[in-house]
Write a structure and sequence with these properties.
Largest interface: A-B, 37 and 37 residues
Strand order of the largest sheet of chain A: 1-2
Number of helices of chain A: 9
Structural class of chain A: mainly alpha
Largest sheet of chain A: 2 strands, antiparallel
Oligomer: homodimer
Helix content of chain A: 55-70%
Strand content of chain A: under 5%
Order of helices and strands of chain A: HHHEEHHHHHH
Chain lengths: 217, 217
DNA sequence: AGCCACAAAATGTGATCACAAAATATGGTT
DNA sequence: AACCATATTTTGTGATCACATTTTGTGGCT
């Protein structure tokens, strides 16, 4: 499917770079970006940037405002609840599907990711925390071996990602406690219901935390 | 969000044209398309076509093969089941959400769409049938007023669309009977469970029908 | 200062260009 | 005829160009 050639196209590099910026909060809502500006930042011509922006717009990660500028789509309380709703439908499902493919080796990997995530949280390294949290969830989700559901969930993360950072910036990260450990514990006990519940709890907790910042939504 | 100007950009026209082709089976799997070829067909330069292809690739409606040609993504039995699974999770949910916004006027509209769909089916007008079926479902889904879920479901329809046509071409359309009437009946009775079940039955029936053609998957 | 008309700069869009890589066509050899 | 090396054409990619539209900057007026 993808280019087997190991040299990535400029297009692909640009896409990944922008995607990361969005997902881990380097690209905040409100600001208006220009294609030429992004192109210069990334050191490429406007062409691959335009294509990347179209691509990310299709994934609902970016929007083209009528004043022909690129930005993170506006969040409303309603849209936020829609994303939360969709996540609650899809992610526990994906987690459950993944479970049969999770062995002790994977569990250790997850515990390791979680430790690093906690460290980042403790040290106030926000980006590290967000990356760790992403890794934890998608290490699980990828093991469901279900590309269709996975790509739907990826789109959802791209949609709330920028707001996660924004809120954490304001409220700090202290009040977050960690459902990941509950999840790994359930995996060790092969407790399917417990695992699914932990994922749901984690999700609910995170979204409630973001949603608490009424001023933004 | 979109251009308020009523003159659509070439980009948007191109996107809509290609999207329709995919959704209603004018673009069949297996064939390899070139950007310049598509551009000439649509009477535009390669530029907007490239951007459209990126966009539709992000929606999983097209794929860029490693021989750098555009095509409908290959279908496998596994992927087909994944799509079916995702549809069964999301579409009944969307239908249920829509129900409170469906009044008698909408019900009549749905009955009307269904009649036209039946006529098309009877006359062997395959594209008419597919368009009618799409209209029926998305007239309902849009009334859920949930853009997040809606865009996820749209991506799913783009993924199985091309194969629907392909199979109908081979097996004919005779064996399809109509769950849409069951659905509208349930709406008239304000029977929530019955409506949800009818949507699920319709979906299952359609997907089973496509999936029956083992040779394709 | 605040406001408005107007000029200058910047932007998105679509087409085109240049080039390397891939696909296809060609022709000679067995 | 079947095969393979080579030449030709086609293709995707990234950059650039041209232009209409929008944004931004400027200076005069109240």
């Amino acid at each position: 499917m993808e280019h087997t050639n190991n040299t990535l196209t400029v297009n692909e590099t640009t896409y990944r770079a922008l995607r990361e910026k969005i997902l881990f909060g380097e690209m905040l809502p409100g600001r208006a970006f220009t294609l030429r500006g992004l192109a210069e930042t990334l050191g490429v011509s406007p062409t691959p940037v335009r294509e990347t922006v179209r691509r990310l717009t299709a994934e609902r990660a970016l929007s083209l405002k009528d004043n022909r500028r690129v930005s993170i789509p506006d969040m409303t309380a309603k849209r936020f609840q829609e994303i939360r709703h969709a996540r609650l439908i899809l992610e526990p499902e994906l987690a459950t599907l993944a479970m049969i493919n999770i062995d002790s080796k994977i569990i250790n990997k997850l515990i390791d990711i979680d430790k690093k995530t906690d460290t980042a949280l403790f040290e106030g390294d926000l980006e590290g925390y967000m990356r760790g949290n992403y890794d934890f969830h998608f290490t699980i989700y990828r093991l469901a071996h279900n590309k269709v559901l996975l790509s739907l969930v990826e789109s959802l993360w791209l949609q709330f990602g920028p707001y996660m950072r924004l809120v954490y910036n304001r409220l700090g990260t202290d009040s977050l406690d960690d459902q990941h450990r509950v999840a790994t514990k359930a995996l060790e006990d092969n407790d399917c219901i417990g695992f699914k519940n932990a994922i749901m709890e984690d999700l609910q907790q995170g979204m409630t935390f973001i949603g608490a910042s009424k001023t933004l939504l």
